[in-house]
Amino acid sequence: MADIRSYMKEKEKREKREKKQIDYKEKIARHKLAAVYRVLLILLLLAAFAVFVVIQYKRRTYTDYDIVATSPREVISDTTDVKLGSSVLTYSKDGAHCTDAKGNVVWNQTFEIQDVILARNGETVAIGEYNGRSIYLADSEKLLGQITTTMPIRELAVSETGNVTAVLADTDVTWINTYDSSGEMTREGRSHMDDAGYPMAISVSPNGELLLVAYVYVDAGILKTKLGFYNFGLVGSNYSDGLVSTYSYTDMVIPCVGFLDNDTAFAVGDNRLTIFSGAHVPEEEEGHLYDREIRSVFSGGNYIGLVFLSNNSENRYQLKVYDTESGKVSDFYFDIDYTDIFFGRDNFVIYNEKECQIMTMDGIEKFYGPFSKTVRLMAPVGNGYKYLLITDDSIDTIRLK
Fold this sequence. Notes:
Helix content: 10-25%
Number of strands: 33
Distance between the termini: 92 Å
Radius of gyration: 31 Å
Strand content: over 45%
Shape: elongated
Number of helices: 1
Structural class: mainly beta
């Protein structure tokens, strides 16, 4: 009997110890689960707060701006300012110079040009004269060189890498020649009106690998346009004259072509916008038709903007924006006369010398108001609502408030 009682006591002790161990493990598990719940709750609160901040940021509107930095500048009459990277290019018939955001002159080039032709690509610019024979090449940091042609210049295109393509007029042949920054001709091509047609517009990809040419010609009494993509790289060496793809359009003139990046090109005709994709052999990706006259074309980032006269009585203009990344097409209406329109990451800016309007791609008006001084050029600074204003006597950096 004593053995049985001892056994029962030992068993009871073991069961108590095991129960304590189980309770301890359960407590640890509950504690860990509570910690996980607390972390998840904190993450959810942080995510909700982040969403709230983003929504408030997107919905926030501005009524004025502060000048956070300013630098004096002197402007000669009859000059034009354009954005060149983060710098400002000022040019006239007598020369050109580049200044940084603080007004310091980076480089200066004198020349005498009666009818200026200017081509930009990123921070690189080519300046020539219509019917002239000289091309001045530079970027935002330095002068790159001068190119001399043997025939009159009719059109220019430049890459970010400093290659220049020029349309040159001969007696009965039009030449499309490409030069490097040292002035050496790297490619020679010719176009005859009875064959390929007349090159109406040209553009070069940022890396200089692709050249897009819009030829206009008449076939059996019908006006047509042919788009030709030339590849100057290894892929193009496998094709005759480097011509990797062509597209023809009947009864349409295409006066504007361009590249958004090395993979995306576009062509704007009098009744159709066509978008192409491909870094080596571009293919037609999508087309958009319209039946009204285009007043202006703007592009930047993933966006192409076409301005038409408005079809309603409340606004004078309609801006149709094509997002090449999402395929979305958006319509915006505005009423101010515009000097320029440029695109940000998720917004666009319309301005003239007196006033400015900023809209998001969601249709929210972020700012609409006058400038305190006459503005010659407006450009973004970074990704926020911070901008550079170029006036007659200053370079102002502003922040909306």
